[in-house]
Amino acid sequence: PKEIFLKDYKMPDYYFDTVDLKFLLGEEKTIVNSKIMVFPRVEGSKFPLVLNGDDVKLISIKVNNEDLKEEDYVLDSRHLTILSPPTGSFTLEIVNEICPQNNTSLEGLYKSSGNFCTQCEAEGFRKITFYQDRPDIMAKYTCRIEADKSLYPVLLSNGNLIEQGDLEGGKHYALWEDPFKKPSYLFALVAGKLASRDDSFITRSGRKISLKIWTPAEDLPKTEHAMYSLKAAMKWDEDVFGLEYDLDLFNVVAVPDFNMGAMENKSLNIFNSKLVLASPETASDGDYAAILGVIGHEYFHNWTGNRVTCRDWFQLSLKEGLTVFRDQEFSSDMGSRAVKRIADVSRLRNYQFPQDSGPMAHPVRPHSYIKMDNFYTVTVYEKGAEVVRMYKTLLGSQGFRKGMDLYFKRHDGQAVTCEDFYAAMRDANDADFANFLLWYSQAGTPQVKVTSSYNSDGRTFTLKFRQEVPPTPGQAVKEPMFIPVALGLLDSSGNNLSLSSIYHDGVLQSISDNDQPVYSTVLRLTKKEEEFVFTNIPERPVPSLLRGYSAPVRMETDLSDDDLFFLLAYDSDEFNRWEAGQVLARKLMLQLVSDHQQNKTLVLNSKFVEGLRSILTDSSLDKEFIAKAITLPGEGEIMDMMEVADPDAVHAVRTFIRKQLANALKAEFLAAVENNRSSAAYVFNHPELARRALKNTALAYLALLEDAETANLVLNEYKNASNMTDQFAALVAIAQKPGETRDTILADFYAKWQHDYLVVNKWLALQAMSDIPGNIENVKNLLNHKAFDLRNPNKVYSLIGGFCGSTINFHAKDGSGYEFLGEVVMQLDKINPQVASRMVSAFSRWKRYDEHRQNHAKAQLEKILSANGLSENVFEIASKSLA
Ligand code: B3K
Ligand code: ZN
Predict the structure, then answer these.
(1) Where are the domains positioned within the chain?
(2) Which residues does the UniProt record annotate as the domain Peptidase M1 membrane alanine aminopeptidase (predicted)?
(3) Which pLDDT value is given to residue 514?
(4) Is the pTM of this model over 0.90?
């Protein structure tokens, strides 16, 4: 397999102006006719024209209407090269054949539940026809689709419907035209039996946009929330960024077989049905929130991704980091900002930090890849979003908006780079960003150590920072980064002190330039070590550092437990209030893990219990915030902080603390359940979902108790639940403990929901993730359950992905979990390499565990690598993991 490098980027020799596609969709094969207007980048130049093609059968090729002779082109398994094209512009006409029916990779044109659909990003268009399949080739497309009318009554592609009509032999056709230039990865086609929910949106300039969400007819009632989300996103992008939709029609199609969450094809978004379909009975609050976020995300791509796209795939974060940032902000504005931030930071810590410290660590803009699909990662997406957020932290809302405006003004219709985004932010604000660009090129999570001291004579408070970026594959030595640290200083009654000026680098800087008091500021760290001295500080303050998590770093402070309890109780920054609790919990858990390893008796610090009690009973706090604040850091997060990760000890300790809390706070948890039951019909809004979150978090604690009274309570919650959020939460609570009740209720749930594949996937995932000893047998049996199918990505993510998330069973000492995954990966790779490669990633942290586990994991990776016909996708992850 060949590695591709950013430094080797070359501009294309030829550009495409227009592309006219014709599809004859058939039951055995599909014929594609592509007519392209080609022009050279440099007039008069003479270069071969190299087209990509993957699994496409060439039928004919014409240049300027004449058949090309065999000696004028070369065909290999991946390319079609036209050796000496005419100088100047010319037309190229290719006819080829493909077999969507046999395409199980779900990339290119394939079938899902009897319908045709496409997925072209990143490099799937080359599975449809021969093309310069790279994002800097932007062209105007038309697309004519011909198909059997009764089997495929609906024919969709990008842009506007220009013409449609009937043809001989029971066929019909539709002709679509997209007036905007686009890269091939945004091309889409859908044909099938679908019905639509129709609505409209009036833009701020008064244009009426027709909105359609397409699904099988029986699922239409479940598209209401998706339509609501779409309209909210359209409005939000106008209000916050001044961005209006640019065509008269916006289509969303939901398909059950999809590798990823969704795809932002121009005016024809295609979605994994999991992220469109919802009803109160079948979807949880989490599903509703995910739909809101992802419908928003794909819609926002219309500007950040489609109108302005990426020059090459290394720049992926240019569109993904930015669009994730935009969807995070959208969801914040629609719900609770603090809680959304907490959820996003938890995700970063639980998934991105481990990636950043493992063998797959790569910069937000990777330097190389073997298979681009492997780089749709938490680093490119989530850390990329943090990088965008830092611009906003540094520039403020208005400055950030100025930067965005300039970015669109300069680059609309272009394929650009991360530097172009940086330059727009800088130039619009005349800003000095020092070494900020390192965030795009240096991998690894920076570690920042802070020490503080108070001088009562001089009334000064000093913060000393020391930063270090750990080595990552291919990057042994790192430069110091530009780290914005938002902070405030709390006085002894918990109020923010007014900040007047700071000494830094021997210069006294005033914090405010008018006489208004300032209570928080953003320090800019740029060096390995530096010091900031706050003046006029009347008493020793407790610093609240990195407020709102202003930079994606691991911060270690010299704050005492008392300081942390103080912040937990008083910080005005809600994020940092939560964070103080998490820091305490992490310390406590690590200490107990070490006690457990030394066979000491475990004792839970009573101050910690009291801290949580006061949060739990504080009626001034948002209920969803309370739910987050009383949830312990995940087992993965703790394992990630250990020298040698010990799954058994971490699981035992986390369970121990949860049981202790359940006992100590039983009365408070009971009250939380009693007082927060859903009153009326299910509504998805912040106050309602916050009540449910608190009630269900409390319920999960209570279910750990051994008395009959709470066991009954939990069972009744399950039986009386009137929506999926409550029903599933009760099921999760019950499923924690092995036994007859668990078995009966799991069976009951399946019997109730077997007709609904999305609900059944939840049922699969819940069982797969279970930490009940020996659960692997159950998972193996589920592989053969009629509800499971290795060809459907969602089912694989639920059952196999779920299993890899179980601390105890995946990491079983005897290696049975690893062996199971190894076998599944090899089977899966023959069906769908992208999905197989996501699954094999569960091995990538194998070196974090003890020698015994290491040997088992290594053996599996070696076995996978020696398999015949291994995909490049799996090869890349497995070989880098072993290196
Ligand atoms: N851009 C798509 C991801 C495509 C993944 C291709 N392997 C979804 C998104 O981020 O919006
Ligand atoms: Zn995206």
Answers:
(1) 15-193, 448-558, 608-645+654-882
(2) 227-436
(3) 75
(4) yes
